[in-house]
Amino acid sequence: VQLVESGGGLVQPGGSLRLSCVASGFNFSRTTMSWFRQAPGKEREVVATIYSPRGNTVYEDSVKGRFTISRDNAKNTVYLQMNSLKAEDTAVYYCHAPGYDFPWGQGTQVTVSS
């Protein structure tokens, strides 16, 4: 199993980023996927989840209306579109399959700063 995140970077408050996570080694299309984040000195928290097979989504309260999780099963990829970014969104972002003992990827750093 491998999870490879990308798309992070430095962005000003109010800006946007699109994160991608390419998965391999398991049946991606049948697996619920989530994006997590970990800010310095804080525990890792779930940000958004997209369920399989229906594709319904759930968001952490602080990102509702700003973030959108989506997936492309043909590409084994899950995305996180992040709009109206705030300084408190600064963190390392990871994708993972909730409930599965998969190894975590390296994550992608998102820094929101002017």
What can you see in these coordinates?
The chain has strands at residues 2-6, 9-11, 17-24, 33-38, 45-50, 57-59, 67-72, 77-82, 91-96, 108-112. The chain has 114 residues and is mainly β. It starts with a strand and ends with a strand.
Residues in helices, as a percent range: under 10%
- Number of separate helices: 0
Could you tell me the number of beta strands?
10
Share of β-strand residues = over 45%
- Main β-sheet: number of strands, strand sense, barrel status? 6 strands, mixed
Layout of secondary structure:
Blueprint: E1 2-6, E2 9-11, E3 17-24, E4 33-38, E5 45-50, E6 57-59, E7 67-72, E8 77-82, E9 91-96, E10 108-112
Parallel strand pairs: 2-10
Antiparallel strand pairs: 1-3, 3-8, 4-5, 4-9, 5-6, 7-8, 9-10
Which descriptors would you attach to this protein?
0% helix; 114 residues; single chain; mainly beta; six-stranded mixed sheet; four-stranded antiparallel sheet
